[in-house]
Amino acid sequence: MTTPLPQTVIDMVPVSAEIALLVGTCAILLIDMFLSQGKRSVTYALSLLTLLVCAALSYHDFVAGTTVYTFNGMFVSDPMSNLLKLFTYLAVGLTLVYSRQYADDRGMLSGNLGGEFYVLALFATLGQMVMISGSNFLSVYLGVELMSLSLYALVAIRRDNHKATEAAMKYFILGALASGFLLYGISMLYGATGTLDIAHVATAVAAGTIKPTILVFGLVFLVAGLAFKLGAVPFHMWVPDVYEGSPTAVTLLLGGAPKIATFAICIRLLVEGLLPMAVDWQQMLMVLAVMSLAIGNLTAIAQTNLKRMLAYSTIAQMGFVLLGLLAGVAGTTDRTGAAAAYSAAMYYTITYVLTTIGSFGVLMLLSRAGFEAENLADFKGLSKRNGWFAAVMSILLFSLAGVPPMMGFAAKFSVLTAVLGTGQIWLTVVAVMFSLIGAFYYLRVVKMMWFDEPTDTAPIVVKGDMSFALSLNGVAILALGLLPGPLLAACLKAITLTLNT
Known about the structure:
The protein is an all-alpha fold. The protein has helices spanning 16-33, 40-64, 79-105, 116-133, 137-155, 162-193, 198-206, 212-230, 238-245, 248-255, 257-273, 278-301, 306-327, 335-366, 382-385, 387-401, 407-421, 425-451, 464-482, 485-499, and strands at residues 68-70, 75-77. The protein has a two-stranded antiparallel sheet.
């Protein structure tokens, strides 16, 4: 007679947002099959409604401020995950609003399965949510793969466009290589510790009974996989080519919300799981950060394609995120300083995502059927064509450059303060110097918009929802720069409650 297996009670409440998104996405997929091409607005509205429902559920959990594990500790709902999910919904929602007309003009919403753009975007969001809440190497990896497979398909969604097809092939091949790095690193750590649970890995590593060589070997592959997802040097090869080759709507899905999810797994794996090895991964992140700042900013100067320029800008911006993460290593002796550094990195990631989404939104605003506004020359004289959106783009570029009083200045200041607090003055000086270099190529675009004569005189036609969202995006960047306190406090609270649990 066999002994029955013990029954495990699984609490479904912490995964209510994920369940709502999965059910909503499947329903949208089915409904869309019965819609004609002219009814894609229904799919669009249902997608935004689904994100809104998920936001309400995550906000309720964030306000509660509790930490709950489920699925045998593989999934966690805590303040950090819920706050990051809220900004993930916001990023994806804005992306869908900005992309609607652009995708329609390029036939991405036509055919029997024209709603696949929205469905794949929602499935990618589900993968990001699993990444953010993963407390086990297995669940984190499943989230990474769900997000990646959805994004591979999105990059190749314009099957008749050779640039998009080439970008999809590059992204798929290099993405598979990065996933291999990540999985190999996880397998090494599993072999050394005998567990996939992140908390148990931390306990096993802290015990000091495992041969350090095996741990460091696994850590190197783990950091390499994370660096690829962030687009940090020297794992940045895919970023400019994929950003340029993808439809701008898909580029936005690649460069926005996924960075939030990648930041979350950096905290989960490096801080929660491998903090006893902080000295090792701090040195790795230091090299990655300095190289990203240098190559990202210097190479961006030579770009004439704005999408490639913003791609190299992304590489440089991720250098600042890595600076915040490595500054948190002070947490081995000063938990308050560590929480401040990690929250600065979180704030910087959110700032980057909100600003980048707006920047690519303006690119899609200026694009139209048969014309892609992606060269610097396309922005000449924008102030004479539409002064308001020229002002919005200027705010976004000033924020990316770190010019006060924009949100980007507060983000850079908080990260640099955290790095300076660790006593690494040279690293702070290097970051400031490369930021000054980076300011050149941002301000060059501002100069073109306000002082050059326009080369394109076609009227700019904007739908009401996009006009409202893009205007709100620009105003929010300015407002959060003038009053950064509440969001910084929310990030600090989320990090503190999460790491002290």
